[in-house]
Please model this.
Amino acid sequence: MLDIRFIRENLDLIEKMLSQRQMTFDLSAFKSLDEKRRLLIKRTEDLRAERNSLSQTIGKKKKENSAELEIEQIKQRVNEISEEIKTLETELSDIENEHRQLILSIPNMPHNSVPIGKSSEDNVVVRTYGEPKKFPFEPKPHWELGEKLDIIDFQRAGKLTGARFSILKGHGAKLERAIINFMLDLHTSKHGYIEMLPPFIVNKESMTGTGQLPKFAEDLFKLENWDYYLIPTAEVPVTNYFRDEILPEEKLPIYFTAYTPCFRAEAGSYGKDTKGLIRQHQFDKVELVKFVHPEKSYDELEKLTQDAERVLQELEIPYRVVVLCTGDLGFSSAKTYDIEVYLPSYNGYKEISSCSNFEDFQARRMNIKFRPKGSNKTEYIHTLNGSGLAVGRTLAAILENYQNEDGSITVPKALRKYMGGIEIIN
RNA sequence: GGAGAGAUGGCCGAGCUGGUCUAAGGCGCACGCCUGCUAAGCGUGUGUACCCCCUAAAGGGGUACCGAGGGUUCAAAUCCCUCUCUCUCCGCCA
Model:
């Protein structure tokens, strides 16, 4: 959410931003609605002020034992005002609702270092790590490797649930667990994050706080008969942890990491990545979340991205980092780096982590502030998050990058102690 | 699931037989004074959101907010209803 006054005073900037994000938005509707709203507020508030002062007068007159008739006349007048207020209030509440929905559906302003572009094709590669391995044989995609080794079962998952679900079995399940533990240990012991295991179900307020609602309801799984949703990412419960709180400045920055399954309906993704583990309705992810001082948030974004990259470095898997252009940038984000892992089955790179600085966009929605030293005023903090990493895609990347000619998988050195010393899956 | 108690500003905490509540008091914080230093003391100021006026800046006025939403009333932190959450006890349960 952007500041209302900022929107009002910078409509031309907003318009430019929206077109850079490839979005259409009726700003003139906002303008007239905003003016109407302010006019109505003024009128109702003036009437309320009159009612309040008349009511006080009645209290005083009663104490002074004034004439009943006089008091009755004032009551009569107040009743008339109240009627008028009631009419205006219904009108106003409709307008307030519409106004709020409009503001909540305006995306964040991109940082000025974000390249301008139309789509993911205009994203800019920032750095590349490692060289894609040259296989002396034809490498297989992870879904073939996984099924042959009987460590991933897509068929029966379809029976149990439906499309875009999978079952990990035996060493596949163990590898998933190993990856999760490896990532959590790395971030807690080397990067200073505090581990959290949050609820996997949250309410509407939390979804609104991080920006999934009201705009992206169709991407979420909602529980029947409850106003609760399955989380699409740990970002939602972890970032909302401090909703409606004022944090002491000396506590900043605060780093959290959390493993959770993630549930995504992804209404708009039919036909994309239909094979394998890449796009599932349920997948595991280790998330990184930061609450930081506004002046430090861009330094923190660089550090957070490096923390996520470190996972792939330790696993010795090639990747590259791209900065998303305005047309590909997420709704709430001011700047995002994607980490893309090398996948032989794609003959290229695939997103495995998305690291974003939301500046005060989420903090304003969630009302998370801090009190700067030497000031009585509060300010919004900045929030960031990034995957550290998507576990399913990491497993896929390991299978594909560590495959041998006979279809067996060499376990990356960093994971062996989490795999009970197993060096080869076959 | 049953019975009871509670939710008030950054924090603690009074008010809860409706009308100077314009939410006491304390702590914390900020500024100033005082004191060789420190501690203590004294004074002043300190919530959020929105709207209006004024503006270079400062400032001034108003409305709403005492867990959330309704209701009664000229007037609600205070009375009534519904809901949420927390705590205590009982029941059930991995």
The radius of gyration of chain A is 27 Å. The first strand of chain A starts at residue 124 and ends at 129.
